[in-house]
Amino acid sequence: MNKLFKQTLLALAATVATVGASAATIKIINADPAGVGFNDTTPATPVGGNEGTTIGEQRMNVYKKVAKTWGKVLPEGPAIKIQATWEALSCTSTSAVLGSAGAVSVWRDFPNAPAAGTWYSAALANTLAGSDLDEGTEPEIISRFNVNLGAANCLAGQSFYLGLDGNAPTGQIDFAVVLTHEVGHGLGFQALTSGSTGARIADETGVAFPSQWERMMFDNTAGKTWFDMTDAERAKSAINPRGLVWTGANVTTDMPSVLSKGTPILTVKSDKFPAIAGAYQVGPASFGPALSSSAIKGTIARVIDQADGVTGLACNPLSAENAALVAGNVALVDRGTCSFTIKVKNAQDAGALAVIVADNTAGGPPAGLGGADATVTIPSVRITLDDGIKLKTVLTPTDPAKHAVRAVLGVDKAFYAGADAAGRVMLYTPNPYQSGSSVSHWDTLATRNLLMEPAINADLPTFKVSAPKDLTLELLKDIGW
Q: Which positions make up the signal peptide (predicted)?
């Protein structure tokens, strides 16, 4: 039996809250100092079923509810100890790491291990072994949450919603959903094997071993699993956009009850420019109508509203020339400067049928368009920088009809949104690699949105981790839970 630590524990005084359930027991170790985080004594008004009277008490009440949620669906075994703190995590005025969590240690070749010579996260290893492998000396999971959220330099104006009812108002982020996501990582929703280098975790003697995940990570381009790849091949697979899928039986079986049939797609047609014709990957918008089998068809009209004659940001109401171009057509605009909702609304006001937003940074696959505006009534999607350049090369700011470049925006009913043709759910593999996000999440194309995508979406159900609402528990079952 071999154990390897993955994280360094903080030497902090701690209090423990135990949440028992019909199956697993989870112990929350509050390691915050006095007056901070879970010990914050700032008075708070009860909200959304959370009857706590201080900020710290309300935060802990949410954690207890999340622990109870997980405890009900996990098998009986040794208590799962989770160390919890509020700390200054990475953030800027427009973005923030909301939280992080992961296994404190990994284990292999323990009693009842399903596969020999294979790393398992501590909580899962203990459950499979039927005993606390480190004899209760350490927690199995460390979780941290951003104590500065909402400050001027940390996603300004945002805050955590501490209700238990899933009704987070605009401008607040549901802490229960964030917390459920992070505990999912700690329980084993993490690849363990490095995505940036492809390297496996080595033991104290320097011998590297695979993780349980590798057996169920299949690259459609390479035609093999991570278990059968070299380090270099795994690193290449980790940046193969929408090319890496999960083959576990539980996820694949329950996927049709969770994801929607129909992958969003842009098909470009042109007799004059056959080189640009074909299917384009898109990131759909979270606002406006969703793409459907009733495809939007129209000529692509490129907006140019900058003095340099190059960029079309559509951040202001379209000029008479641009409005005449996009009316009754599909507008092609550029990402940057203003929100996606503003761009799409300006094109809509000018009579556009739909909007394509060309990215301004390299990489792929194209992420979705975030935002909310109930007045947007036309669909919109994002395409990659390279695909945007390809289209703009032939689309000059003149009468679009002369170019005969047509768009068909709809869904491919042969695929589930977020799965490949074989019904295997895609893992998140953007290029370039995104540390902390790549590989150990589902792809953002998944619809419905899934708990373990790399960003928290506002439409996620609270305290739901399994089919037909989600697929997190199904993946955990695939790895041995």
A: 1-23
Torsion angles phi and psi, residue 141, rounded to 5 = -135, 140
Strands (E), 2-155: 2-5, 15-19, 26-30, 80-87, 99-103, 105-108, 120-121, 141-146
Please answer whether residues 394 and 403 qualify as being in contact, where contact means their C-beta atoms are separated by less than 8 angstroms.
Answer: yes
Q: Would you call 341 exposed, middle or buried from its count of C-beta atoms within 10 A (0-12, 13-18, 19+)?
A: buried
Listed in sequence order, the residues at least 6 apart from 205 whose beta carbon sits closer than 8 Å to its beta carbon are: none
Q: What are the residues facing 161 on neighbouring strands?
A: 174
Rounded distance, CA 63 to CA 16, Å?
A: 12
pLDDT value at position 83?
Answer: 98
pLDDT of residue 364: 87
Residue 260: the pLDDT is: 94
**Residue linked to tokens 């009733």:** 294
Q: Which residues contact 118 (CB under 8 A, 6 or more apart)?
A: 108, 209, 210, 211, 212
Handedness of CA 345, 346, 347, 349 (dihedral sign): positive
Domains of the chain: 2-188 (no CATH), 204-257 (no CATH), 261-416 (3.50.30.30)
Cα–Cα distance measured from residue 395 to residue 266, given in angstroms and rounded to the nearest whole number: 17
Q: What are phi and psi of 244, to 5 degrees?
A: -110, 125
Ranges of residues in the chain with a pLDDT under 50 are 5-13
Residue 228's nearest CA partner among 238, 220, 217 is: 217
Length of the chain: 481
How many Cα neighbours within 13 Å face the side chain of 200?
Answer: 24
For residue 37, the tally of other CB atoms under 10 A from its CB is: 20
**379 contacts 354 by C-beta, under 8 angstroms:** yes
CA–CA gap between residue 389 and residue 413 (Å, rounded) = 28
* Structure confidence at residue 310 (pLDDT): 66
| 335, 365 Cβ separation under 8 angstroms | no
Residue 109 CB contacts under 8 Å (≥ 6 apart), including other chains: 1, 2, 116, 117
What do you get for the CA distance between the two ends of the chain, in Å?
Answer: 19
Question: In angstroms, rounded to a whole number, what is the distance separating the alpha carbons of residues 146 and 59?
Answer: 12
Cis amide bond preceding 365, omega within 30: yes
- Mean model confidence pLDDT for the chain: 93
The pLDDT value recorded for residue 371 is 85
Site of tokens 């993946």: 475
Helix (H) or strand (E) holding 321: helix 320-326
Largest separation between any pair of C-alpha atoms in the chain: 74
Global pTM reads: 0.87
Structure tokens at 399: 């009468």
User: Cis (ω within 30 of 0) for the bond into 144?
Assistant: no
